[in-house]
UniProtKB/TrEMBL annotation:
<dbReference type="Pfam" id="PF13692">
    <property type="entry name" value="Glyco_trans_1_4"/>
</dbReference>
<protein>
    <submittedName>
        <fullName>Glycosyltransferase family 1 protein</fullName>
    </submittedName>
</protein>
<dbReference type="InterPro" id="IPR050194">
    <property type="entry name" value="Glycosyltransferase_grp1"/>
</dbReference>
Amino acid sequence: MNRILVVGMTANKGGVESFLMNYYRQMNKKRVQFDFLTIFPKIAYEDEIQTLGGRVWHIHGKVHHLFQYIKDLKCFFAQNGQNYKSIWVNSCSLANIDYLKFAKRYGVTTRIIHSHNTQETDGFVKKIFHYWNKLFLRRYATDYWACSNAAGSWFYSKKIMSGSRYKLIHNAIETTLYSFSRPVRKNYRKILGITDQIFVIGHVGRFHNQKNHKFIIDVFYEMHKRCPQTVLVLIGSGKLEANMREKVDLLGITDAVIFMGMRNNVNEWMQAMDLFLLPSRYEGLPVVSIEAQAAGLQVIASTAVTKEAAITKLMNYYSLKQSASCWASLILNHKEYVRSDTSTMIKASGYDIETEAKKLEEIFVGQS
């Protein structure tokens, strides 16, 4: 069995976490097993990971416990480095490449860095570290992966991207779970207390500046004024949630906006929606855009979302330079769309997890 040391899982059930679990669940555990190294006291899906036979290693975080963090890394790799031929570091930034450095020092032969975003999310200082580490990345990494070429450009030089060690790994999903189902739609709209006449706009994402919830609410407010029989469903949690709840109250649309919190069955809640709104300020290749298309939903996305996400004709792009009122008009133009099964297109585009996981499994086995 090949045990792969995976870095990148956090406490939040976000896009990277969903991506990792989608692949992990499909792996033949007799051939490939994932273990996770994390700075969080408990990570998303930790109980499931342990049930599937994976280990979760916890160390101190760098920001608040620098010296203990370094000590923990040395101790971990000194004791366990020989058990792993591969480390797979999933990240949205190159601000911290310590895992690759220690993995090289302690003999981990295959060191994979995987880009999941196109911009630094946590301030100017980390952005400086990102560009500095980008200059020296080839000293420590052996393989360079990305969810899209836009994400690849954020992490890697043109020379790396034109080389044989660069790979695109699709943000694949379990297509059948998202296939449009009228009975599921009827049931979940009933749970929400929504009639067939109500038009439901949906969004799934953490409450973070990247996801642009403020603009989502502004767009919905403009639409709701013109078409009162509309509801906004927001799935996710995060530090900006309280601010968005306050904004909804100030706009007087509390009864029309449903804050769902974190949900494990996003695939079923998507059935209740009529349109998916994704006005992100930046993205790598968002898993939710693939999920929404698999559910047969029209997607209105910002031009900041990579064009590689348009694997069906359901993706529509619009500039954030346009006003919320213009976005509302665009949504109203898509109001009469009839849902259909898109599973064949999803699979043909290389985003079906059953097929893609087998490819990844072979890559890991081939590294032994």
